[in-house]
Design a protein that fits this description.
By secondary structure, the protein is mainly beta. The chain has a domain at 82-137 and 149-197. The protein is built from one helix and 14 strands, in the order αββββββββββββββ. Strand 2 (57-62) and strand 3 form a beta hairpin. The longest helix has 20 residues, at 2-21.
Length: 253
């Protein structure tokens, strides 16, 4: 009887040890590796200050993510933001205005050519984000209509196509993306108003110390293959246009 009891106990112990040994790491799922080449969400693939320029790449430095390599090729499109004047504001051109009051007393005016009948910036139709804001695209609460120039962001802004120009200002047609209605916003200018415009460029416009924003895909090393690169001059605050939004390589305009 004693031998029988010992044999049964020994068998039970062996089964217990075997069960413990088989539960090692098989129940733990393997860690998933992010897909290579997936664009970073929430803004350009890389943006910031140009730290170095090579034949087919640049090094982009940001305060949030350090240094990012951006590769470009013959298929990459470039735009350069340069100084402009009121004479560059013409009927049919697109503008993004920041200022105060109603009518809007313009402090800054950004000018670009219309894409067909649409004004767009950063790939989004219907308006442009002023330089110095933290996003490349205009934002508004989900489902809400685009405010007019007297209410947008608390007043003092206008986004859209210019319908008329005078010596003291111009009129901006703002499209409501929800209703399709158009609102005329009056903009006045003064001797202190500053102007910039976006124009087609090429890789020769890339200079150390300038600001860039690159759209494209990042590989598993973080290097970006750029489809488009936007160039602008640094402000007194540096290349801070996109820094507030970036999760990758901060700021252009």
């Amino acid at each position: 009887m004693r031998r029988t009891i010992l044999a049964v106990a020994g068998g039970a112990l062996a089964l217990t040890l075997a069960a413990c040994g088989s539960s090692d790491t098989s129940a733990t799922p393997a860690a998933q590796t992010p897909a290579s080449g997936t664009p970073r969400a929430g803004g350009p693939a890389a943006s910031g200050t140009v730290a170095a320029v090579a034949a087919s790449s640049i090094e982009v430095q940001s305060t949030s993510n350090g240094q990012v390599t951006v590769n470009f090729s013959d298929t990459t499109t470039f735009t350069d933001r340069v100084a402009a004047t009121l004479a560059d504001v013409t009927a049919g051109s697109c503008v993004s205005v920041t200022g105060t009051g109603t009518p809007v007393a313009a402090q800054t005016v950004e000018i670009s050519a219309a894409n067909g009948n649409t004004c767009s910036f950063g790939g989004q139709a219907g308006g442009m984000r002023p330089q110095g804001d933290s996003s490349s695209r205009p934002s508004r609460p989900s489902g809400s209509a685009r405010p007019s120039g007297t209410q947008n962001g608390g007043g003092g802004r206008a986004f859209g196509k210019v319908s008329a120009v005078s010596g003291t200002g111009f009129t901006v047609q703002e499209d409501n993306q929800q209703t399709g209605a158009t609102t005329d916003v009056q903009v006045t200018v003064s001797s202190t108003t500053t102007y910039t415009k976006s124009q087609p460029a090429n890789s020769s416009a890339l200079k150390v110390g300038e600001c860039v924003s690159a759209q494209g895909k990042a590989d598993d090393t973080g290097a970006v293959t750029a489809q488009s690169i936007s160039i602008s001059q640094a402000t007194a605050n540096g290349c801070d246009t996109f820094e507030g939004r970036q999760r990758n390589g901060g700021g252009n305009g």
